[in-house]
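Notes on consecutive records. When two proteins share a document, each keeps its own sequence and its own token line. Never mix them. Below: protein one.
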Amino acid sequence: MKRNHLVLILVIVALVLMVWAGVDNYRRRKADEAKLRELQAVLTPVAPPASTDTDVPPEEEKSPLEGKAAPAFTLENLQGKKVSLASYKGKAVLVNFMATWCAPCKVETPWLIKLRDQYGPQGFEVLGISTDDLDKDDKKQNAQDKADIAKFISDMHIDYPVLIDGDSISHPYGGVDVLPTSFFVDRSGKVIAYTVGLHDRDELESNIKKALASGGA
């Protein structure tokens, strides 16, 4: 009889421990979910309130350069060869400001590679403009900076031209504060579209098609 009571007590204790563990696990899960929601709220920008005036179109990203000639520039690639935007006149060009440390750039780059493969035969080119810092006063560090860019190009399998020292030309392009930033230049050298930050592949493709269709002879 005493043995049966002992077994019953052990069973009850085991059940209580199981219930307690389940409740504790539930509370922890809820706490983790709350923390995640707080983090998402911090990382997700708050959208501006929609306009109640139906006569005013929603604000779109605009650059003062849209509809104007893209600022001329000449930069070097990693091999020291000078490359100018003017040399691509007659082609549609995506001038893409990026950096090796830019996470959204790593998402976008494979799209650019595939889009360049798709539309290259029609006269489309991508120019990657690296804004990575280059220590020009320290030869050893400068070589390491360039090696880091070369590794990024290799790891991402980039087969389009990548030019360095992009910060030196950011001012004529309105200042590049967010990466990636892209300017879509038509065949005549005019900026016909502009994007800041990571945009989806369909939008990139749409702007490439506009650039290809514009500025032809």
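Protein two starts on the next line and is unrelated to protein one.
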Amino acid sequence: MNTSMALVAHFVRRELQNRYLGSISGSLWALMQPLAQLAIYGFVWAYVFKMRPPGDDASPGAIVPFLALGMWPWNAFAEAVTRSTTVIQDNAGLIGKVAVPRAVLVFSTAAASFLLHGFGFCAIMVALGLAGMSVHLLMLPVALLAFALLFLLALGFSFLFAAVQVFVRDLSQALGQIMPLWMFASPVLYAREQLPEAYRGWFGFNPFSFYPEYLRSLMLDAGRVDVVAQSIAVVVAIAVCALGYVVFRRLDPRFEDFL
């Protein structure tokens, strides 16, 4: 167990160093890029489309925390999945020379993404609270528990896609098209209530939908997510993680034949 934890810590550090080595802004880019994205969407949504959070008659700035609570979990999820998909293929030379547990590579890549975006999430929530936005900072620890559950969901998809990518090299390119569509099919930039009623039920088939809605209910009092939905989210995250890991372990012995 100690060896596995040491390997995870090593590969998380390596992932963070490789990602930002030589970058002028260093790891601050993990905060700057989503902030720039939030500023653009906030301006377009508030001043171009005149959008407001459901049931909120406040100033245009009220859309900013609403968007932040959708974008930060999505960025963590999407980055963890997409970067983990090619991690076995990218480390083919290392796998051929050193007996490294392949699952550690996937776990470490996903964990690095969630650590960076989790830090950014905490920073932006505190900043919005200090700026006078109606953000419930006392609920931040509970929100981080939801982030941990989202990590399980992302890890399951990461294991599954990383294993399939070894045999189907086009998967990573396909994900580049699928992930933006997935984002717009999730309540990241809008609320379920803003959809025509006939389409709202489809969100129940999207495993990511729970997280922005739950975080908004916690941090903004925007709607309510009942215990049944929370229980389903826990079961789905654990099931996807377990399924992804089982598929990964079953395909693991054949990786070197295709790398």
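For the record: The mean pLDDT is 85.
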